C-alpha cells in the first residue's frame, strides 16, 4: 500500500500548489495582506478533495494508485506486476 500513499501524497501536493499559486496570481501576489492567508486556506480545499478522490480511486481502480482508471486499463498497475 505504500505506492498508493505516495501517489496520493503527490497528487495532493500538486493540487494544493496549483490552487495556491493560481489564487495568489489572481490576488496579485500581496503576501503581506490578510487576503493572502485566506487564499492559502482556500487552496487547501481542493487538496482535501483530492484526498477524497484518491481514496475513492483505490476502490474504483487499482488499489495501488489513486487513479480512477479501471485496474485493467491503469498502465502503472501492469508495470508494477
Protein model, in words:
- With 81 residues, this protein is mainly α.
- It is 73% helix and 0% strand.
- It is built from 3 helices and no strands.
- The protein has helices at 2-27, 34-60, 75-80.
- Helix 1 (2-27) runs antiparallel to helix 2.
- The radius of gyration is 16 Å and the shape is elongated.
Strand content: under 5%
Query: Which whole number gives the mean pLDDT?
Result: 78
Unreliable sequence segments:
none
**How many β-strand stretches?**
0
Provide the gyration radius in Å. Answer: 16 Å
Structural class: mainly alpha
**Which term fits the overall shape?**
elongated
Helix-strand pattern, N to C? Answer: HHH
Portion in helices = over 70%
Distance between the termini: 14 Å
Task: Give a quick rundown of the structure.
With 81 residues, the protein is mostly helical. It is 73% helix and 0% strand.
Task: From the structure above, extract its key features.
3 helices, mainly alpha, about 80 residues, about 0% strand
Write the topology of this structure:
Elements: H1 2-27, H2 34-60, H3 75-80
Helix pairs in contact: 1-2
Amino acid at each position: 500500500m505504500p505506492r498508493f500513499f505516495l501517489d496520493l501524497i503527490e497528487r495532493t501536493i500538486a493540487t494544493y500548489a496549483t490552487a495556491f499559486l493560481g489564487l495568489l496570481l489572481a490576488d496579485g501576489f500581496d503576501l503581506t495582506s490578510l487576503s493572502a492567508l485566506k487564499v492559502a486556506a482556500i487552496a487547501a480545499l481542493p487538496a482535501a478533495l483530492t484526498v477524497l478522490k484518491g481514496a475513492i480511486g483505490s476502490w474504483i481502480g487499482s488499489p495501488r494508485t489513486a487513479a480512477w482508471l479501471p485496474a485493467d486499463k491503469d498502465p502503472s498497475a501492469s508495470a508494477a506486476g
